[in-house]
Amino acid sequence: MNRLLCVLVLIALCVGFNNAKMKNFVHFKNSLLQKNILKIHCQSDEDDLGIHFLSPGQTYNFSFNDSIFKTKIDCELWQGIGFKFFAKFMAYKSGGLILHHGKKIFWDAREDGIYFTHGKQIPKLEYKWVDTSPYVWDSPRPSLF
């Protein structure tokens, strides 16, 4: 009986510590030019965080706990007229058995690309925008017949 009580107390302490830990935090900011809307879609293996639209100067953030199996969050961003500029990247990744608590990730969308920082250093350009507009022919298209 004493062993069972010790195991139950240990489980209760672990659950209490798990609920008390700080969550990880991912933050996006639209630093694009005036009237340039930023479209964001993020998802993990467990959750689809939906699509969010940010006007210049606006922010979007979410928090979560790491999974013991590995936490990976992929995001897609679009901007420009008709959302023709695109970037897809891994916004967060944990190491699996090494759980992070209170980790802060900052992504800043600017005209030349997506910048990254943990908040302690100057943001660094990580990803450039890809132009997804249809190919424009410089000369007349060849006839098929």
From TrEMBL:
It comes from the Eukaryota. The keyword Transmembrane does not apply. InterPro entries: Self-incomp_S1 (IPR010264). Keywords: Secreted, Self-incompatibility, Signal. Its main location: secreted. Residues 1-20 form the signal peptide. It is found in: Secreted. Pfam families: Self-incomp_S1. Belongs to the plant self-incompatibility (S1) protein family. This is S-protein homolog. It comes from Camelina sativa.
